[in-house]
Amino acid sequence: MREYDLIVVGGGISGITAALTAKENGVKNILILDREFELGGILNCCVHSGFKNKYSSEVLTAPEYIYSLQTKIEEYNIDYKTLTNVIEIDKNDKIIAISPEGILNFKSKAIILAMGCRERPLGYKNILSHRCAGIIGAVSTLKLINNKGILPGKNVIILGSEDTAIFAARSLILEGANVKGIIETTNKIKAVSKEAKNFIKDFDINIMTNTRVTKVIGKGRVESVQITKLNDNKKPIKDTEKLVTCDTLILSIYMKPESLIAEKIGIKTKEFGEIVLDKNMQTSAKGIFACGTVTTGYETMDKVIKNSEKVAHAALKYLNSL
């Protein structure tokens, strides 16, 4: 069994940032575990520019940003294992994971949970349909286009206006798809990043606020959607129904914190799975900390980075107290 001073579960931006910050402040033996093929988390789905970090003076694209962090991981001799899924953490700080190598056992003095968040199941959006093809999540859309080179549809309606919806709309437009509009049930867009807001203006994306998709129509594949205007009480306004032809409906739904492993060992979480932290960024389990979107749900990159740097210092303080 390999022993470490600190193990970070999750190799997205929050996990990488926490590991690098801990190393820079004196933590010696660090391991990052991630279940995906490569480090980088949800940012691997993106290709747009606008990223900055302290390791580069230039404005970077998403792939360049990830590469700059991976370069530092190699430089700092931080161990990491991809395609490694943590299945159990016990109260003695023992971690059990499975990978192509088999069942792996690790022990650590401190643990940081940085598993990020994922799209909720598609059934979360209560829309009448015949379960036809052509309904997909925004993050899955980004993966298909930017990672696999697959265009999921030619005429697209997007439901939801979070950052991932705008990024998906941008990628679709650049690949030649016709984004007919973004449907938002509230009276304003929910995108929070500066880049996403700029994309709306730059690409002249049609935003339909106070509107809801009430029905999906199609045999085999989506052929059209029915949209309806909403009043101030979020109730459909009579006689405002309208059919919009499309072959794809993209759902930008709330991101659910990937906190199942934490819940499994009794760590306290909130209603939607956000891990609860004390003032020292420690979970309800001693020696186990958490950072990033697994504690907040979707959040801006700047806030994730600051949060991850803070948890690294909290873990260091804990290690120094042992």
From TrEMBL:
GO MF terms listed in the record are: oxidoreductase activity
Print the keywords alphabetically.
Answer: Oxidoreductase
Locate the FAD/NAD(P)-binding domain: which residues?
A: 4-301
Pfam families xref list: Pyr_redox_2 (PF07992)
Keyword Oxidoreductase part of the UniProt annotation? yes
The reply on keyword Oxidoreductase is: yes
> What name does UniProt use for this protein?
FAD-dependent oxidoreductase
**Source organism (scientific name):** Clostridium senegalense
Upper classification of the source organism reads:
Bacteria, Bacillati, Bacillota, Clostridia, Eubacteriales
